[in-house]
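Usage example:
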Amino acid sequence: MSRTPLHPTREQIELPMVLDCLSDPIRMAIVYQLAQQERVSSELCCGDFTALAGKSNLAYHFAKLRECGLMLTRVAGTNRFMRLRREDLDARFPGLLDAVISSAAKDAERLQLMSECETVAAARS
Amino acid sequence: MSRTPLHPTREQIELPMVLDCLSDPIRMAIVYQLAQQERVSSELCCGDFTALAGKSNLAYHFAKLRECGLMLTRVAGTNRFMRLRREDLDARFPGLLDAVISSAAKDAERLQLMSECETVAAARS
DNA sequence: CCCTATGTTCAACGTTTATTGAACTATTGA
DNA sequence: TCAATAGTTCAATAAACGTTGAACATAGGG
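Running the assembly step on the lines above writes:
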């Protein structure tokens, strides 16, 4: 397991890749859950998303989200803690992330997103 | 040529499809150009985009943009006039389209988007 | 009525994508 | 030291995607 995986610099973040990343339902669910987590300022690790897909499939989606600049991965022991690259995204594409998140929230049921209480509860357990 | 092609209703517009549609550089360029055109409140037809791709390839992208609810196609003679579904998109996903357009504008050069004056000039010629 | 202009549709192609399970690596705790 | 935990990597598969050219449909102008 190599330490601290590759992340693009802020300037390297590209709009088409970000939008493509967000167009996948599983990745959208991950981003949405990370966005909810921002409020309690804690991170989530891979294991918190096992409801969404199998382990190896999740690793695939995490890699995409990292490589397109949507999230940051911090290695700690056997865990990888993840959070949104909020500052970089807001600097690069002002208002975009918020618009996407709130659009997703409006369609939470249709998109099969976890509700906020489920997310927080899952994070605490 | 069948009359008035299929458009989804406002409620049928889905976020993942919209984001996926916008993640393609050619479709982004089309949407961007249509957004510029809103300001002079005129429509554009297929022929206005021939700089972006071949005819049949454009038809493919137009179909995608129409089917995901991003644009409206109006048939008039041998022409198809197109415009953004601004009202429906703003109602469904408030702030999203504007954030995407202005994010694209910031990266206009990187995304190889036509500048505003080029767009307007092309529309007038 | 033909000819042209405007777009669509179709089949073909090569590429990329998401998903799976199995094998693997690294870390922690007993 | 051994076993369990957390996550990655790899190979394989099927589906979806973007691009192309040729054929087709439709409308308008001479």
